[in-house]
Amino acid sequence: MTVGQEGGEPSSGGGGNLGEAMSRVARRLQEEHGDVESTLQAITTAAVATVPNAEECGITYVIGRKKVESRAATGDLPKNIDALQERVGQGPCLDAVWEQEIVRVDDVGADQRWPEFAPQAAALGAGSMLSFQLFVDGDQLGAMNLYAAAPGAFDDECQEIGLMFASHAAVALAGAEHEQNLRVGMANRDVIGQAKGILMERHKLSAEQAFGVLARVSQEMNRKLIDVARELTDTGAVPGGNRRRD
């Protein structure tokens, strides 16, 4: 059987078959996502079904190279491992994943790279780990982490398939984030348009003058322009003023 086939495991041979199967996985991720969070969850579920010997999967964001945030997981283990990395300040996502595309931990409990993290992670039930970099954006990183209870669960084939899957997952995630940003941008534009309309009608201003009022209030109050516009449309009052809708 090939990768992604229901109820089966990936084929050990045939690069063409693997490529076709990964394309199917990529299409499924693109078809299933509705927003970023559902895409993240779909990635974790598909990864466990795709990568040989993977028993759990989690997607971790590292913010400011310090804060570890568990964004999606197939179970409690990935969340607990992320919380451990946050607590002890070390682990795959806080170290080599920044410089390397892949971090493989064959025996979590015996790994010397993270002396405080390793024994506690093993005690939580992690025997093997595979971490793949999904993206790096400034000081923010996204990684996909695979787990197995037994040491030595992931070999070179697992790593190769996992890397191919992570590449497709990164594309699907970028697409979901782009769509979400577009939706937010359109919604913000509508709110600003409504706020401008209120000011234009109430004070007989031009569209340019109304936008200038919003921008000036935003600057004086050190608040985002969209927040000023939203408060105006919600309350009828310009923030910091005493005017209200009749």
Report strand order across the widest sheet: 2-1-5-4-3
Count of the separate structural domains: 2
Major sheet: 5 strands, antiparallel
Compute the CA-based radius of gyration.
Answer: 24 Å
Say what the CATH topology of the largest domain is.
Answer: Beta-Lactamase
Low-confidence stretches: 1-16, 242-246
Q: State which percent range the strand residues make up.
A: 15-25%
The appropriate CATH architecture of the largest domain is: 2-Layer Sandwich
Helix content: 40-55%
Quickly name the level 1 CATH class of the largest domain: Alpha Beta
Order of helices and strands: HHEEHEHEEHHH
Average of per-residue pLDDT values: 81
SSE class: alpha+beta
What is the 3D shape?
Answer: elongated
- CATH homologous superfamily classification of the largest domain: GAF domain
Number of separate strands: 5
If helices are DSSP runs of H or I spanning 4 or more residues, what is the number of helices? Answer: 7
Protein name: Antitermination regulator
InterPro entries: ANTAR, CheY-like_superfamily, GAF, GAF-like_dom_sf, GAF_ANTAR, WH-like_DNA-bd_sf
Keywords: Kinase, Transcription, Transcription regulation, Transferase
GO molecular function: kinase activity; RNA binding
